[in-house]
Specification:
CATH architecture: Orthogonal Bundle
Shape: elongated
Strand order of the largest sheet: 1-3-2
Largest sheet: 3 strands, antiparallel
Helix content: 55-70%
Length: 111
């Protein structure tokens, strides 16, 4: 199965979940996603998702100066983003339950 196609459908919720408890800048969000098991995720996908979530009002952003290099743009979830995340979690759980049910039926038929 092509994991990249699955990632496209869940990347928004994964990014929102990663910044739910702690704000993050682009590379930091990417690092956290990879640490959570999203090894195949591309840099451009994460940066594009952060931009899209910011533009649709799910994230806010602010710049933090850095003495060690360029300033970093941090992203933070806001109330609208929390609502999107909660709805997405419910949708994901329902979808996962449905897939689990189908897979269980297929195992029973094969046995």
């Amino acid at each position: 199965m092509d994991v990249s196609q699955l990632l496209k459908g869940v990347l928004d919720v994964a990014v929102l979940a990663v910044v739910k408890d702690e704000d993050g800048y682009g590379y930091d969000v990417l690092r956290r996603l990879r640490a959570a098991g999203f090894d195949e995720i591309g840099d451009a996908s994460v940066y594009g998702t952060l931009r899209r979530l910011y533009l649709n009002g799910s994230l806010t952003s602010y710049v933090v100066p850095s003495d060690e290099g360029p300033h970093r743009k941090y992203y933070a979830i806001n109330d609208a983003g929390r609502t999107v995340l909660e709805e997405s979690i419910k949708t994901w759980r329902g979808f996962a339950d449905s897939i689990d049910q189908v897979l269980k039926l297929n195992r029973e038929v094969a046995a």
